[in-house]
Amino acid sequence: MTTCAKVKRRALTLTICLALLGVTLIMPTTAAAQERLFEIRTYTALEGRLDALHARFRENTNRIFVKHGMSLIGYWTPTEGPESSNTLVYILAFPNKEAREKAWAAFRADPEWKKVQAESEKDGKIVKEVKSQFLRATDYSPIQ
């Protein structure tokens, strides 16, 4: 493969990755981009239940989120301290606050979600606490 072909291939790969992450290299100035809402959610799992929470997200929750129009940005766990054994932090994105409310209402009412939740909690509850915070990207943020 020529150097030129390699560069084009890398550029295409990067473009696809960025598109999948919802990242844009040019800052959008549309009203829609200015309305985009990010939600950071922090889950504190009950003692010994973090693995069950990860399994529920990995195997079912993410797919159901996408089904209801939620954009998955990323998932993290703390690397140090007591939170590393019981905390999951993730970010979702929505076109606006109204879309967020609609998506969550549809998710909570979804019979598939209700079944998944019940099955995953057959040995007891998983989540102790959920905190949510809403953010808008700054005009200089690489993610809009």
Written overview of the protein:
The chain is α+β, with helices and mostly antiparallel strands and 144 residues long. The chain has a domain at 36-135: Alpha-Beta Plaits (2-Layer Sandwich). Helices cover 45% and strands 22% of the residues. The chain contains 5 helices and 4 strands, in the order H-H-E-H-E-E-H-H-E. The chain has a 4-stranded antiparallel sheet with strand order 2-3-1-4. The two termini are 35 Å apart.
* Main β-sheet description: 4 strands, antiparallel
Unreliable spans: 3-9, 11-15, 23-29
Into which percentage range does the β-strand content fall? 15-25%
> Which CATH architecture of the domain at 36-135?
2-Layer Sandwich
- With strands numbered from the N-terminus, the spatial order across the biggest sheet is 2-3-1-4
Helix content: 40-55%
Q: Taking Cα atoms only, what radius of gyration do you get, to the nearest Å?
A: 18 Å
Number of helices: 5
Average pLDDT confidence is: 85
Looking at the structure, the CATH topology of the domain at 36-135 is Alpha-Beta Plaits
Any idea what the shape is? Answer: globular
* Tally of DSSP β-strands: 4
Structural class, by secondary structure, is: alpha+beta
Q: What is the CATH C-level name of the domain at 36-135? A: Alpha Beta
Q: Compute the separation of the termini in Å.
A: 35 Å
- The run of helices and strands is HHEHEEHHE
